[in-house]
Fold these 3 entries.
Entry 1:
Amino acid sequence: MANFEISCEHVKVPNGDLQISSYIAYPVGEGTFPAIVILQEIFGVNAHIREVTERIASEGYVAIAPALYQRLAPDFEIGYTAEDVELGRRYKEQTKASELLSDIQAAIAYLKSQSSVKGDAIGCIGFCFGGHVAYLAATLPEMKATASFYGAGITTWTPGSGQPTLARTSEIAGTLYAFFGNQDASIPASAVEQIEAELQKHHISHRVFIYDGAEHGFFCDRRASYNRTAAADAWIQVKQLFSQVLQAV
């Protein structure tokens, strides 16, 4: 249930000469609030990602979803057809970890410039490709809380080139929650085990959730793989993470 009346708008987040199209939602009224960066699936900052942004804002956060494909395809937004998946993946393969982190850092700087934001209470949440990017973003020093949903390739790949993103686990300073479905064809159980082992090895504050019968994309109610039970529980866990880590700051 929404607790806060919210306002939403499209804004541009500056990063040098780049202007990153972003969707922002924030509670209406006095006070300061923690802030959350929402990281898109391969489908762009589409209706689902905007809804998640609004949903998080209604819980008492300033929420912003920057366009992760801004450098490649400004204002990119597609649906979920096979052709859409192919196009979204094509752009994903062209991204670079350094540029993604730079753009997320710019979004954090933008948030900190807002008088309604508690600058020391920043978190992020990402889905699919954005779940992988969230794991990367967790290495940023400002990131206190990260929710990573079914990020494929964390153990085998990093955007651009270089060692897999998993190799950066030791750089995570905050708390990370990771969410997976045990029927996800994109993420084998062995990869989830590797991720959890690495988080434990480096003593990262974390929890890993694995949902029976859930497939890739289980949180998105616009996808055929939507799993109402798994999505509902995951949302409870996300709210707990952000509340415990960020509201206490």
Entry 2:
Amino acid sequence: MTEPIRIDVWSDIACPWCYIGKRNLEKGLAEASADDDAPFVEVTYHSFELSPDTPVDFEGGEADYLARHKGISAEQATGMLDRVTGVAADAGLEYRFDILKHTNTVKAHELLHFAKDQGRQLELAERLMSAYFTEGRHVGREDELVSLAVDAGLDGDAAREALRSGRYLAAVRADQAQASAYGINGVPFFVIDGKYGVSGAQPAEAFAQIARQVWAEHRDADEDAA
């Protein structure tokens, strides 16, 4: 059997372009899956914190955060949010920056590593991003994270224990160290089979094309080995 394509995605729960990139990747892979020789793909998410110094309970809205973090005016920040909201809508996502609760995401990343061990990482990544960008949920707080973990099919008590123990923090830091080794300084960033890098929220068609190209390389390698 041909080895699956491995797609490693560095992203942050609080990155609006990461959710758009996630949705476009899914659409592109779904398009390629309709091929007669459909690619087999395994996707894994990795931790990246855009603003690790953000407090859990940030005072102000998303425009306030952008204005402070990037040193721009409130009007410029609002314009940036309006633009990304439009791009998100094109991807089928209804962003609600008016109710979004900006927060520190390290605990959410720890929970994603716990979910990976339980075989539910993709489900939790979707649940966390949806909660953050479209529902105004506070993904920096333990109770909210546990509730979202349960939504994603995880055991609530086990999720809470994983968060309180801090035992997945080392895995978060290892992801960040790998990102640094790859030279990744912005997300989303997609690493295909450990050798191709794709930066940014590419359109679905681009992901479909990449999947087909790399799958053809896998097939050629199989034939050469036969």
Entry 3:
Amino acid sequence: MGRGSSGLQSAPPPVPRSALRQRFDQLVREVARFGAVGGAGLLVNLLVFNLVRHVTDLQVVRASVIATVVAIIFNYLGFRYFTYRDRDKSRRTKELGLFLLFSVVGLVIENGVLYAATYGFGWDSPLQSNIFKFLGIGVATLFRFWSYRTWVFRALPAEEPVAGAESFLERRGPGEKPRVRQRVG
């Protein structure tokens, strides 16, 4: 029956995943971590926004800018030490500068949506303000995800080419010389 004396079958050898599948899985994990930090940052942003609006007489967009700045600080810490903790840490000053630059662009996008709804259409009830604040955060989040992963928290060089070259060299038969490709051009 193909079973050992214990009655258990041995597990089949693991099937190596393709490089594309590995990159897709890595992207899914990154999006999940980004979403976890972003979701917590969203809560911080909305909580501070509503607290400032309730406690002070500041205008809607000014209260939103304060909340966005608090969320930016919260998010930087979350992204640096959770989402992108494995990324290059050698250029922190440049990283922080780029993070602030792209965060300010995100702040303008986020609060531009709220500004247009409030002053362009007169939608300024607490519910309407929260809806458009949330919508603005959503639009700005798309920009932030792209810019942070592309420019701010840059990936370290991949080790895949080295592993591929080593496995190629291991596949040579005994006594075979490595083949060298010549570049044309």
